[in-house]
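Lab notebook: predicted structure, single chain.

Context: the supervisor wants predicted structures on file for every construct in the current expression panel, including those that have not yet been purified. This is the next one on the list. No modifications to the sequence; it matches the entry in the shared construct table.
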Amino acid sequence: MELNIMISKVGSAIVTVTVFLFAFFLIIDFSMGGYFVCLILPVGFIMMTAGLHNECEGDRKVAANIGLILAAVYGTFIMIVYFSQLTTVNNEQLNEQAAKLLEFDKYGLIFNYDLLGYGVMALSTFFTGLSMKPKNKMDKWLRALMMIHGVFYFSCTFMPITGVFVNMSSGGNGIGGRLALVVWCVFFMPIGILSFLHFYSGKR
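Prediction complete. Output recorded below exactly as produced.
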């Protein structure tokens, strides 16, 4: 039981720290730092989600299972996206067509995969929150934030389909996009903090 709690707390701490660092790197416009922490974030998120899944009572196990499976799907997409940025994109000379597909700031295929991944993450938090039975005010806040975060699924999934990001690839310095991501970090960081406090104080 202690190992379960320790892994869950470490996962929550990883989520909190990586989201904070991601926001910091966005503000100072250091993309490689952001890519690196986003490669680590999914590991912490899966550990955190698995901890909440482990606590779930039997009558809500389906929702918890969906949340954990979606966390793994999110992790797969996001680790592919950011590992490709840190390796292939960073180390190789890409031709124009490959760059359009693989460079994150070109708003092409790899950018769309990133949005799909975070859309799946939003669904994961929704179902994980749905599986919780809060026993105190802190847990109620955690559950509410996780379920509200599920709304991001719609924007992350359907906005790329509309082609709204295609025009962004032709110019601009991306300040608006970075600001939107900083706002997301401010929203999501309390989920990591509350999860850590939940596992720290719960010991169920």
